[in-house]
Design brief:
By secondary structure, this protein is mainly alpha-helical. It has 13 helices and 4 strands.
Length: 365
């Protein structure tokens, strides 16, 4: 017996998916009979198995390319799986729920300069991504209401902001780690553990980006903005870190404060039902997120994903505010150090016992 499927430009219909699933379950061969008026790319997409349509995209559906972002390698038959370079620590639900919005007061002129630069960067990011405090909401009758005007934060606008944010968030850690690596080689001195933490931060931010790219493919305009922003931000961070690494860490700490605020707002919007597509129990988060954060069964909703990402951003906030309090050339990295007195709290890689605005030098050194 052979199952014949008639395909058209609508490749993700429920009927087609049902036939494919039934045939696969019974081991039946499939033949595809395209409708003559449908474009040839439709049959090509079905034959390649790419019948999964992205839920949201900043590119019109007619421009989506028949490819999978970051597909597995096709010329590595001996490789089954490449594990993450830095395995992610396991977070508990209680630990993630304890994350709060926090702000460190600017005490010295470097702090004031850092927060001023952060506010300038935040203003530019808001303009580029069309951010607003307005959102769709559920009224007292349970009806979804959308404010007048096009500028409103729905699922698509949030993804645009997140992708742009995460595309530049991985720059500071890489710049700091690279410069400290070269500094260590050039001066023939130890770095005392800073390089690893900074590179791990950059890696973690990149994993955030890869996760959200599974939900939306940026259009050409967004790609151009990302290229421009990365060029400006990288060179700015490069020069700034050479001049004052302490100010750069404080700047990143303030930037991470804004990231925690952003993800906290998204979580509240989901809980309030203002983002119905993400509140839908049938909505599936990418597999890359499940494997990276080692998310348990039953805790794999979009809200759970945002809790994990927010916890990561809160950790970066703590790390950079702490590093900004230390002597940049001689102090060891407190987040990987072994302490003499284990009865007192001290920094670590996880988020248990985390200090939201960083540790003071006298507490850890």
């Amino acid at each position: 017996m052979t199952v014949t499927i008639t395909t058209s430009i609508s490749l993700t219909s429920r009927a087609t998916s049902t036939k494919v699933a039934q045939a696969a379950a019974h081991g039946l061969p499939l033949t595809y009979k395209p409708i003559t008026s449908a474009p040839r790319v439709s049959c090509l997409l079905v034959q390649r198995g790419l019948n999964h349509q992205r839920q949201f995209s900043s590119t019109p559906a007619t421009q989506l390319k028949p490819k999978q972002w970051f597909p597995p390698p096709v010329n590595a038959p001996k490789i089954e799986y490449a594990a993450p370079a830095w395995p992610h620590p396991v977070y508990t639900e209680e630990q993630m729920a304890n994350i709060t919005i926090a702000h460190r007061e600017a005490k010295v002129w470097q702090d004031k300069l850092a927060i001023g630069l952060m506010r300038l960067a935040r203003w530019g990011m808001d303009k580029v991504t069309g951010y607003t405090e307005r959102s769709i909401h559920v009224d007292e009758n349970g009806v979804l209401q959308k404010p007048r005007g096009w500028l409103v934060m729905d699922e698509r606008k949030w993804l645009i902001r997140i992708v742009f944010l995460e595309s530049v968030a991985g720059v500071p850690g890489m710049v700091g780690g690279m410069l400290r690596h070269l500094h260590s080689l050039r001066r023939l001195k130890r770095d005392n553990g800073w390089i690893e933490t900074l590179l791990e931060e950059a890696y973690n931010e990149r994993m955030h980006l890869l996760t959200f790219l599974k939900l939306a493919e940026p259009g050409w305009f967004m790609k151009m903005l990302i290229i421009g922003a990365q060029g400006v931000f990288f060179n700015g961070m490069f020069i700034s870190y050479l001049l004052s690494p302490r100010t750069c860490h404080r700047f990143v700490g303030y930037l991470e404060e804004e990231a925690v605020y952003t993800y906290s707002r998204i979580i509240k919007e989901i809980e309030a039902g203002n983002l119905p597509k993400w509140s839908d129990p049938k909505f599936q988060i990418p597999d890359i997120a499940v494997h990276y954060w080692r998310m348990p069964e039953g805790k794999r909703t979009m809200r759970d994903l945002m809790l994990y990402v927010r916890a990561d951003e809160a950790k970066h906030r703590e790390v950079n505010h702490t590093l900004g309090n230390l002597e940049q050339d001689g102090d060891p990295n407190p987040f990987i150090s072994t302490y003499k007195d284990n009865t007192k709290p001290h920094p670590g890689k996880g988020i248990d016992g985390m200090k939201q605005t960083g540790w003071e030098r006298e507490e850890v050194i």
